[in-house]
Hints:
The structure holds two protein chains of two kinds.
Chain A: E1 4-6, E2 10-14, E3 19-25, E4 32-38, E5 45-51, E6 56-58, E7 62-67, E8 72-77, E9 86-93, E10 103-105, E11 109-114
Parallel strand pairs in A: 2-11
Antiparallel strand pairs in A: 1-3, 3-8, 4-5, 4-9, 6-7, 7-8, 9-10, 9-11
Chain B: E1 5-7, E2 10-13, E3 19-24, E4 31-37, E5 43-50, E6 53-56, E7 65-68, E8 75-79, E9 88-95, E10 104-105, E11 109-113
Parallel strand pairs in B: 2-11
Antiparallel strand pairs in B: 1-3, 3-8, 4-5, 4-9, 5-6, 7-8, 9-10, 9-11
Amino acid sequence: GESVGLHLPTLSVQEGDNSIINCAYSNSASDYFIWYKQESGKGPQFIIDIRSNMDKRQGQRVTVLLNKTVKHLSLQIAATQPGDSAVYFCAENIRSGGGADGLTFGKGTHLIIQP
Amino acid sequence: EAGVTQFPSHSVIEKGQTVTLRCDPISGHDNLYWYRRVMGKEIKFLLHFVKESKQDESGMPNNRFLAERTGGTYSTLKVQPAELEDSGVYFCASAGVLRTGELFFGEGSRLTVL
């Protein structure tokens, strides 16, 4: 099966609400995880990353949570805005040392913001 | 600073024809990657250049795909002959150092094989 996957392919939220996008991974050796955002007509854009020695990392309006016990990764977006509409991809690094080499992407979750 | 640029943005060809996709990375980025996303599926790694050398081409599907990066600047990805299953969006990404997973992606080249 896939190493990196998603619980939901599409997520619809009301503007202003918080969004939670989930991702499961199966490779217990992965030690580095990343979230990318792809807006329509554009290429994926790096949002935030986290290493396996952490369980939480915060950015601007985004928080990534890592639960190594159940091999689960999530991206939380606070106060969702129309500009957050995009496909969100989680990615894991299956090689030691982290970095961009050996990145495996999931299928993506389409986040839809309703007014 | 210019980002990663890809050309063409969309190409429609018939099965058996040849298509060449081009990627211009961010100036000074030694690392250049090609990825592909087939409709509704994950973004899959194709290959990785470090300057003009192929660092990893384990993701190339078969010998109908040929990637080059002469001179270590821009890269081309040729598909010859194209098959229906080659349809998808081909992304190029570049990076300077690889301490993080931050790749700078282009907007992609959408390939439709009829």
